[in-house]
Specification:
This protein is mostly beta strands and 125 residues long. The chain is built from no helices and eleven strands. Strands 2, 4, 5, 6, 9, 10 and 11 form a seven-stranded mixed β-sheet that branches. Strands 1-3-8-7 form a four-stranded antiparallel β-sheet, with no helix packed on it. β4 and β5 form a beta hairpin. It is globular.
């Protein structure tokens, strides 16, 4: 039974910073890709960043490159998203996701992930 629990969301002024965390449990297979997604009302869920530790690879949406950093503490089974220089357009419900992907080109596809957290709200205003 896989569980993903996000935390760290909140309200922040533009140019501020937040760090999101996602604690995982129950992932029994090796080599999962861990991703961060976000969604606003009326819009599709979009991939923000992902990390595939076994490939030493990270992936970012163009809109967050240079501002967000994804990382993972395998010992703590925790995924992080450090968000700096936040903009109002970063306001969204942020989700973490996990699964074993067929290839890295799927990292931003919500349909590629079976396991999701409940989301944590980030508001920039």
């Amino acid at each position: 039974h896989v569980q993903l629990v996000e935390s760290g969301g909140g309200s922040v002024q533009p140019e501020g910073s937040l760090r999101l965390s996602c604690e995982s449990s129950g992932i029994t297979y090796r080599d999962p890709c861990m991703g961060w997604f976000r969604q606003t009302p009326g819009k599709e869920r979009e991939g923000v960043a992902a990390i595939w530790s076994s490939r030493s690879s990270t992936y970012y949406a163009d809109s967050v490159k240079g501002r967000f950093t994804v990382s993972q503490d395998n010992a703590k089974k925790t995924l992080y998203l450090q968000m700096n220089s936040l903009k109002p357009e970063d306001t969204a419900l942020y989700y973490c996701a996990a699964d074993r992907l067929l290839g890295s080109w799927f990292w931003a596809s919500p349909s590629a992930y079976r396991y999701w957290g409940q989301g944590t709200q980030v508001t920039v205003s």
